[in-house]
């Protein structure tokens, strides 16, 4: 079947827009990160006069980037696991039960997502400090779980709603224990949603800046706080490019994995067959 000229033009425009929107910024960030410290890149040079990995080495050896990476990549998985576990009961209620005011409660759960990050961070920090809680690492971990919990609740609510009640009833009629019922009837359907919720919280935790800055500053650093420090008053474009790539590239890979996981959710698992 031949494509119409309109579809061909539309596809070409979409590819061009995606190239400008994604490839150009990534390409510029990569070039800036490879600018050799001994020779600056400035107008009218189209390309950097000298490329090297010296900037990466300097960032690793002379800044708190290794500590920031450890903080970010240790906080994120714990925040993901915590958010998924805490979201399960609420998601089950939204996905499987009918009760008065359900739609209102579903909306209220998502309200924190519209709050500005700095507003939430300031009030959360004030609450912690008023309670005498000054340990930054656990405070930021709790903050990430609480702030990102609505994402996990929303994703898992949809997953719970896809579980077929007749499959659950059949497992119970055959004498399956509650654990076996969950493993046979629920888990195959919930698995893609659990992975999706975990990865979403993981990615957003790594990218979160406001809470890490308000609660952790100046001693506790994460990748975003270092990035914003290079984009602020002490603006150093090559250093910012290095940190930006460290922040963005793993998240892009994780998003591709997430997309793969969602596509791999087979209909047989959702229907309870197989």
Folded structure, characterized:
The protein is built from 12 helices and no strands. By secondary structure, the chain is mainly α. It has one domain: MetI-like fold. Helix 3 packs parallel to helix 6, helix 3 packs across helix 8 and helix 6 (136-161) packs antiparallel against helix 9 (210-216). The radius of gyration is 23 Å and the shape is globular. The two termini are 35 Å apart.
Contiguous low-pLDDT stretches (5 residues minimum) are 266-274
- Proportion of residues in extended strands: under 5%
Helical content stands at over 70%
How many domains? The number is 1
User: What is the succession of H and E elements?
Assistant: HHHHHHHHHHHH
CATH fold type: MetI-like fold
By helix and strand content, what is the structural category?
A: mainly alpha
CATH architectural group? Orthogonal Bundle
CATH superfamily: MetI-like
Name of the level-1 CATH class: Mainly Alpha
- Terminal residue distance: 35 Å
- Summarize model confidence as the mean pLDDT: 83
Number of strands: 0
Shape descriptor reads globular
How many helices does DSSP assign? 12
- Major β-sheet profile: none
What is the radius of gyration computed over CA atoms, rounded to a whole number of angstroms?
A: 23 Å
Organism: Devosia nitrariae
InterPro entries: MetI-like (IPR000515), MetI-like_sf (IPR035906)
Main location: membrane
Domain ABC transmembrane type-1: 69-258
């Amino acid at each position: 079947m031949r494509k119409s000229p309109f579809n061909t033009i539309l596809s070409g425009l979409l590819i061009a827009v995606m190239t400008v929107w994604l490839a150009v910024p990534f390409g510029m960030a990569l070039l800036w990160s490879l600018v050799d410290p001994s020779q600056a890149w400035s107008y009218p040079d189209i390309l950097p006069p000298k490329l090297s990995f010296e900037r990466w080495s300097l960032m690793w050896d002379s800044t708190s980037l290794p500590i920031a990476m450890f903080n970010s990549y240790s906080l994120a998985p714990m925040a993901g696991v915590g958010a998924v576990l805490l979201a399960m009961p609420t998601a089950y209620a939204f996905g499987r039960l009918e009760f008065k005011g359900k739609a209102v409660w579903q909306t209220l759960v998502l309200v924190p997502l519209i709050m500005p990050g700095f507003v939430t961070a300031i009030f959360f920090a004030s609450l912690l400090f008023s309670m005498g809680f000054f340990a930054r690492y656990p405070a930021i971990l709790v903050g990430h779980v609480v702030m990102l919990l609505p994402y996990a609740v929303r994703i898992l609510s949809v997953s719970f709603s896809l579980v077929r009640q007749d499959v659950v009833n059949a497992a119970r009629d055959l004498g399956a224990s509650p654990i076996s019922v969950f493993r046979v009837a629920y888990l195959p359907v919930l698995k893609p949603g659990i992975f999706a919720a975990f990865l979403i919280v993981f990615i957003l935790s790594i990218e979160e800046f406001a809470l890490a800055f308000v609660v952790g500053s100046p001693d506790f650093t994460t990748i975003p706080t270092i990035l914003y420090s290079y984009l602020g008053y002490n603006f150093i474009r090559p250093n910012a490019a290095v940190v930006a790539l460290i922040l963005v590239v793993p998240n892009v890979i994780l998003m591709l994995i997430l997309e793969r996981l969602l596509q791999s959710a087979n209909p047989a698992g959702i229907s309870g067959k197989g």
